[in-house]
């Protein structure tokens, strides 16, 4: 089955699609968004099986139930007692959720955070990973719940108390950082085997570098492994090769640019580090069965 192209899912896109950005379930501005119940989002905003590229970072606080979510090509399970931090420009796809699933979510543009010492505090907190899933203790869960409740209550005031929300958000992020550093804290990555950890780190690298780096050796060097061993690990964990994953990432980037930007074909070829537009067009057709021009018009 042909994969769908990721659609942009930024705060500005959401503002343009909904009539009332402020309701009993959401508060949306151009650089900050708060959804008090993800199950009450309009159906046209989040469709199952459709990949979306999120422009801003996300913090999802899982209230109940479970959901299967793909983030940058890897599937994870969200469940009650977790909080998820997702890096800006990630590609997400909702695959399935239980009937009782619900979560609160914040979308945060770096400009909204009143921190000048770090270019992007969320990226800092993620330690340059694309995703962080944290299992919360009962006490930590209650603390996060109180942060969300207070922020939501303040957002119901007639005048948006921007500075109050900004500093509460920073306090929340620093509190999460303390959770991560605490010795008793269990982070999702800690449950991975060594091979699974290599696979996760490899995918993170592919999402960062695939625009310019497309050799097995590059990623093997980054991971301090031999190319042969890296290929073996990736194949055992995903039934695909290193080059399969690189190609998927490149095609995904190309599809986003073709559908969601004003760039011309030769500019996209240059952006993706192809030697010339002709080479890019042949590569794209070989991988998708259609030319970039035909895909753009479809």
UniProtKB/TrEMBL annotation:
<feature type="domain" description="HTH araC/xylS-type">
    <location>
        <begin position="200"/>
        <end position="298"/>
    </location>
</feature>
<dbReference type="Pfam" id="PF12833">
    <property type="entry name" value="HTH_18"/>
</dbReference>
<protein>
    <submittedName>
        <fullName>YesN/AraC family two-component response regulator</fullName>
    </submittedName>
</protein>
<keyword id="KW-0804">Transcription</keyword>
<dbReference type="InterPro" id="IPR009057">
    <property type="entry name" value="Homeodomain-like_sf"/>
</dbReference>
<keyword id="KW-0238">DNA-binding</keyword>
<keyword id="KW-0805">Transcription regulation</keyword>
<dbReference type="InterPro" id="IPR018060">
    <property type="entry name" value="HTH_AraC"/>
</dbReference>
<dbReference type="GO" id="GO:0003700">
    <property type="term" value="F:DNA-binding transcription factor activity"/>
</dbReference>
<dbReference type="GO" id="GO:0043565">
    <property type="term" value="F:sequence-specific DNA binding"/>
</dbReference>
